[in-house]
Amino acid sequence: MKTNRNIKQVIVNGETSLGIEFGSTRIKAVLIDHYFETIASGSYEWENLLEDGFWTYNLVDIITGLQAAYREMKQEVERNYGITIRTVGSIGFSAMMHGYMAFDNTGELLVPFRTWRNATTSVAARELTDQFQFNIPERWSIAHLYQAILNEEKHLPRIDFITTLAGYIHWLLTGQKAIGIGDASGMFPIDESLQDYNESMVKQFDELIALKGYPWKLKDILPKVYVSGEQAGELTEIGAKILDQSQNLQPGIPLCPPEGDAGTGMVATNSVRKCTGNVSVGTSVFAMIVLENELSKVYPEIDLVTTPNGSPVGMVHANNCSSDLNAWLGLFREFSEAMGQKVETDKLFNVMLNKALEADPDGGGLLGYGYFSGENITGLEEGRPLFVRSPESHFNLANFMRTHLFTAFGALKIGMDILIKQEKVTIDSILAHGGLFKTPVVGQKIVAAAMNAPVSVMATAGEGGAWGMAILASYMLDKDHYRLEDFLDKKVFKEVDRQEIYPDQFDVKGFEAFIERYKKGLVIEQAAVDHFSGKLEEFTC
Q1: What is the C-alpha to C-alpha distance for residues 127 and 136, in angstroms, rounded to an integer?
Q2: Strand partners, 429
Q3: Which residues does the UniProt record annotate as the domain Carbohydrate kinase FGGY N-terminal (predicted)?
């Protein structure tokens, strides 16, 4: 049995690992022990800014947030255990993937950090996809760099180094221009056999821009690629002072490779083994499947990235998921309150979502689109939440709820069908995480039907990316030299509860019928976009 005394000794001895992740709305620091359990955490809320047409976070906020998250974690240790952190066994940083940070040889940031959210690189992304015959999404670092070249931006001749946000923090605190292979795979295509950037594509890019006469080659300005388990530097004296403003933290602490949030999500859900995957559900939804083989051709619906240990991953990302479902449940809440019945949020979700289990397998002929925004997978540049039925539809509450659950995963299913039906990708198991799965069974059954694969929810799925990053930092110290997937199975998740649901073939066939209706009805959604702005008009009598 662990006691405060045991944990104090663990902290004093440095038998700990620290993960800090820079998310889109929160920076979080998590300190774990050698049993991979959280000792303390700290966080800092922040928001991106739109400056000169680009979504960004400024450097002051980046450093302020890093220090605030660490300080809050440190203070929690002091409150609970009465000791000051002076060392940590290992540290790792992760952040939102992709984006563009360019520096000159003095370390000056040449243009404000351009985040993954910017949709300013469509021309570059298309041209590079054609050039490489490899899907280059708009948010990738190479798309940002090439778009800047197409725009003939003035900073380009001065570039000495480009990196991601996680790569920048790691460089700042260690002096090492390093990046984890998962994060690197959102900068430039990776060659799995080399565990490095694709050499032929690097050469193609250099040839493509040769006439520009820049004083650099692409490989010279990219960070060095590391895989999980490798050490990618040590905390310097300057780095220790930046991280811990109280200057109690000592330098020399080993750092693992910095990673992207997709990679830490895979680690936090034990989804790095080939033929496994995870589904993350929220305002948007994405699925990441670890592939056994390369895809046969380029698909704009599928991003190809890697796990932190370099295995290829097919990623399907849909912009819309739970927003419309939440809006309808808000309407039902208003109704219940108008009837004098105040309903707790958890009970509302439990009752309403469970109604979907009583529905016809295909949702009774109903149709909906929860498109609050455009949807890249289905080719819609804008969205209009929409619900449609015919006089023959079986319209009741159960079918209504099932339809809204189906449509929440409709675009995702279209992308996943490319992997499953066209590419014959094997999926042994899917780990699902997100607020929808707080209601037992229902969400799992719907996702299992969409994927036609077993879907699990684990007790640790809510721990988040900072915890996943701390796990990667801990893995670097592993004395047994396990492969990452074995380390997670045999050590981290060995005793974690896991609730697995297999696909019900009635649900699978019902979802297939619904998705055909969904695809045919996309012209209705497009018509709504074309003919209904939804803007509020000022009305005067």
Answers
A1: 9
A2: 276
A3: 18-241
pLDDT exceeds cutoff 60 at 539: no
* Contact yes or no for 287/316 (Cβ under 8 A): yes
Residues in CB range of 433: below 8 A, 6 or more apart: 265, 268, 269, 278, 279, 280, 281, 457, 458, 461, 462
| Average confidence (pLDDT) over 374-380 | 86
For 283, half-sphere exposure in the C-beta direction (CA atoms, 13 angstrom radius) is: 4
Are β-strands 429-434 and 455-458 bridged in parallel, bridged antiparallel, or unpaired? parallel
Domain ranges, ordered by start, for the chain: 270-460+504-541
Contact 416, 316 (CB under 8 A): yes
> Strands, E, within 139-246: which ranges?
161-163, 178-180, 190-191, 196-197, 224-226
For residue range 141-150, what is the model confidence (pLDDT) as tens digits?
999 999 999 9
CATH architecture of the domain with range 270-460+504-541: 2-Layer Sandwich (3.30)
Angle between helices 345-355 and 323-338 (to 10 degrees): 110
Question: Which of these ranges, 161-175, 287-301, 454-468, has the smallest mean pLDDT?
Answer: 454-468
Give dist(CA 345, CA 333) in Å, integer. 9
Angle between helices 397-408 and 410-417 (to 10 degrees): 50
Is 292 exposed, middle or buried (CB count within 10 Å of its CB: 0-12, 13-18, 19+)? exposed
3-state SS, residue 386: strand
With tokens 């309407």, the residue in question is 331
Strand partners, 315: 288, 303
Do residues 73 and 40 make contact, with C-beta atoms less than 8 angstroms apart? yes
Determine the Cα–Cα distance for residues 197 and 225; give it in Å rounded to an integer. Answer: 8
